[in-house]
Here is the input.
Amino acid sequence: MPSASPKKSKKSAKSANLDATTFRSQALAEALAQQDMAAVALALRNGNTVVPLMRVGPRDNPLDGGEVWTYRSPETGEVALLLFSDAANKPANLPPAVGLQSPTWLRAFLGANAELITSVFLDIAGPHPMQATPAEILRALDLEA
Here is the structure.
C-alpha cells in the first residue's frame, strides 16, 4: 500500500519500542464492539489509541513518537488515518511498528493534517470496524468529558 507522510508526531504517550501486547484500549474495543459512536467518542477523549508507524522514535527521546503511517488510495489519492483499539487488530500488511498515542496527540495530529486526511478508520480489518471523518473525530475530542 502506498503511504502518505503527514507531519511527524512530536509527542507520544509511550515509546513504540514497548511490547506490542501493551498497546490496547479496552474502552475503545468495547465501544467499537457495541458500534456506539458516543462510547467511541468517550474512549477517544479519555484513552490512548494505537497507530501504525513508518518509523519509530529513538529510545532515548520520549518526545519523538516516530512517524505515523497513513494510507493513500492509489485510485483517488485520498489519505486515511488508521486507528486501532488493539495492536493485534492491525493487519499484517501494514508497517510492523505501532505507537500508543494520547487524545491530545490525536487532536493535534488531525488538526494539523485536516486538509490532507479525508477519512479515519477505526479497526479497519475488524473485529468491529467504524469509519468517521476527521471533523467528526475532532468534534468528539473537543466535547467536554
